[in-house]
Design goal:
Layout: E1 4-7, E2 10-13, E3 18-24, E4 33-39, E5 46-51, E6 58-60, E7 68-73, E8 78-83, E9 92-99, E10 113-114, E11 118-123
Parallel strand pairs: 2-11
Antiparallel strand pairs: 1-3, 3-8, 4-5, 4-9, 5-6, 7-8, 9-10, 9-11
């Protein structure tokens, strides 16, 4: 069982930055692939970024590539999402997710554990 708690969301102007954190419980965090997803009002949840258990493989949605960076610190049981050059269309609830897989999933149905989400609002 893995408990995930996101933090770091908030209100920011377009062009600004935020760093989201996802703290995980459990001693096996380092063996989990981690992902970030987001869901805007009236839209389906979408993939944002994912990282392998050791941190050597990362994937990004085309819409955030070059602006967002996913990273992890296994010693702190935490995964991060650094978000730069934010746009109003980045406004959403952001969720982190964990999956005990070697292959890094990019589909939400492949993840076993989810956090409660943190709101990110980007004003124009």
């Amino acid at each position: 069982q893995v408990l995930l708690v996101e933090s770091g969301g908030g209100l920011v102007q377009a062009g600004g930055s935020l760093r989201l954190s996802c703290a995980a419980s459990g001693r096996t965090f380092s063996s989990y692939a981690m992902g970030w997803f987001r869901q805007a009002p009236g839209k389906e949840r979408e993939f944002v970024a994912a990282i392998s258990w050791i941190g050597d493989i990362t994937y990004y949605a085309d819409s955030v590539k070059g602006r967002f960076t996913i990273s992890r610190d296994n010693a702190k049981n935490t995964v991060y999402l650094q978000m730069n050059s934010l746009k109003p269309e980045d406004t959403a609830v952001y969720y982190c997710a964990a999956d005990p897989a070697i292959v890094v999933p990019k589909s939400d149905y492949e993840y076993d554990y989810w956090g409660q989400g943190t709101q990110v609002t980007v004003s124009s």
